[in-house]
Inverse folding.
């Protein structure tokens, strides 16, 4: 059953001035300005302004479509089918260039999210929020700063030096690129404020940023900066989350949303609805294309799982079943007998799994290639059937935190602590522990810092497969050029700045493009 959640859709139309046509920003007259006169006069309007900052995470440019494709394909966890569109295929083949429209959709959505956050943050800085308690103001600004930090975290890790906006633009003069160090400094400053002013997960609506989300993201930032002592301190301070009682499969379905492991999720809901095609963030966009795009059961079947991803799993790892569908796996909520029909198709015994005493069985998968089970709806539906998905994306969860802590401990020379944290994640799935003869025989000894690191790499692949984390992992580890086909060192460390942005931003020119594009 879907947990109660607030609707993220924006009530204010906020735009990124230097990345959009003027006619997309018609807000009460002058398209270059957003009037705040009298708007922040009550709690309801303040909350709606904050909600707009969440809404852009759901749009087509981010988790509605382009974002999951971009991360999954860049990591080469996916294999494209013959019908996969060329701009999306170019991510897995490393043939993309600045004209790729999917890149611009992501860039635009992220900066619209930044602008929405700035709208709230600037109002607090200008002292124009009225009739709202300081405690509530601090919480809502904390949410806005968490969101700004999240958007900038992805933008700077994907593009490096980027325009750094801390105000809503009141003109079309544009912004130059800022050094990545300045972007990270703002991210850490925002997350400090957020963790000191946001409530615990249990004290706010599901889906909103919390103190735990701010701590987890701040620890991740320090890890990316290779500040391992700070990452360890931050991540160790996280409390209120557990793997106990949470099945691995419940980190990729509707039933497990907002479970005790979940730290931050992107909300989606079939019941609330709305089209994933939205790019503005202004309307309902509470569904995603993820299930429809990836599934062969009534979907487009644009994607299968790359063999290298599937083969990383140990053969007896139950996470195989919770992450993938294979030929012969049962799916769907209903049972059928041979001769029953689905639409015009008459079912045979070969379409069904083991028949029960009443002569009925569930549908079975026939596709020989493994497909993603994570983020699909095929426990509740017989096929995706052109229906948009309401499965939430898990952005940060506790297993990720434990594995990040293991990495920090290993880098600091605390091998015992690192191995213990790895085994906490293994224990949830009932897998043999690192440091045992069983794991040594499987080729995963942990007798040195490098061997522990190799175990961390392995564990992050199998635990977090399909959750849009592997690409940035490979980049920060410096392993991308070694494991990604087509990746060119000296070029693909960062994505190309979208040509649309260079054309529309007066502060950028072709000389500002990332190297070798």
């Amino acid at each position: 059953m879907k947990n109660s959640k607030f609707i993220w859709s924006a009530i204010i139309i906020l735009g990124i001035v230097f990345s959009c046509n003027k006619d997309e920003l018609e807000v009460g007259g002058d398209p270059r300005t957003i009037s705040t006169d009298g708007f922040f006069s009550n709690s309801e309007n303040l909350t709606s302004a904050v909600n707009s900052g969440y809404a852009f995470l759901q749009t087509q440019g981010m988790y509605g479509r382009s974002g999951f494709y971009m991360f999954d394909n860049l990591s080469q966890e996916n294999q494209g089918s013959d019908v996969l569109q060329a701009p999306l295929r170019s991510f897995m083949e490393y043939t993309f260039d600045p004209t790729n429209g999917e890149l611009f959709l992501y860039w635009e959505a992220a900066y619209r999210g930044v602008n929405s956050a700035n709208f709230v943050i600037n109002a607090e800085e200008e002292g124009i929020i009225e009739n709202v308690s300081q405690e509530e103001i601090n919480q809502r600004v904390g949410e806005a700063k968490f969101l700004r930090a999240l958007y900038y975290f992805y933008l700077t890790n994907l593009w490096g030096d980027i325009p750094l906006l801390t105000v809503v633009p009141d003109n079309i003069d544009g912004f130059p690129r800022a050094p990545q160090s300045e972007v990270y400094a703002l991210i850490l400053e925002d997350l400090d404020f957020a963790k000191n002013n946001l409530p615990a997960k249990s004290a706010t609506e599901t889906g909103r940023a919390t103190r735990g989300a701010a701590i987890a993201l701040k620890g991740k930032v320090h890890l990316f900066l290779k500040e391992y002592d700070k990452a360890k301190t931050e991540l160790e301070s996280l409390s209120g989350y557990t793997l106990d009682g949470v099945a691995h499969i419940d980190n990729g379905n509707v039933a497990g949303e907002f479970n005790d492991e979940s730290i931050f999720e992107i909300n989606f809901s079939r019941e609330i609805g709305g089209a994933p095609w939205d790019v503005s963030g202004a309307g309902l966009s509470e569904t995603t294309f993820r299930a429809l795009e990836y599934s062969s059961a009534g979907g487009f079947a644009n994607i299968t799982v790359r063999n290298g991803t599937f083969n990383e799993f140990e053969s007896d790892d139950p996470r195989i079943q919770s992450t993938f569908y294979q030929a012969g796996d049962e799916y769907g909520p209903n049972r059928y007998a041979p001769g029953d029909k689905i639409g015009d198709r008459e079912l045979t015994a070969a379409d069904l799994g083991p028949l029960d005493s009443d002569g009925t069985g569930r549908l079975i998968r026939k596709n020989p290639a493994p497909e993603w089970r994570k983020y699909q709806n095929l426990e509740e539906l017989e096929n995706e059937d052109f229906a948009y998905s309401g499965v939430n994306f898990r952005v940060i969860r506790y297993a990720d935190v434990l594995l990040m802590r293991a990495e920090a401990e290993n880098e600091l020379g605390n091998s015992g602590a690192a191995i213990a944290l790895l085994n906490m994640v293994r224990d949830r799935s009932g897998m043999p522990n690192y440091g045992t003869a069983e794991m040594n025989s499987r080729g995963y000894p942990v007798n040195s810092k490098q061997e522990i690191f190799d175990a961390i790499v392995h564990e992050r692949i199998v635990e977090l497969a399909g959750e849009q984390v592997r690409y940035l992992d490979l980049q920060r580890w410096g392993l991308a050029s070694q494991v990604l086909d087509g990746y060119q060192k000296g070029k693909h460390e960062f994505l190309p700045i979208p040509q649309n942005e260079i054309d529309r931003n007066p502060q950028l020119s072709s000389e500002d493009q990332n190297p070798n594009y």
User: Anything to note?
Assistant: Residues 8-34 have pLDDT under 50 and may be disordered.
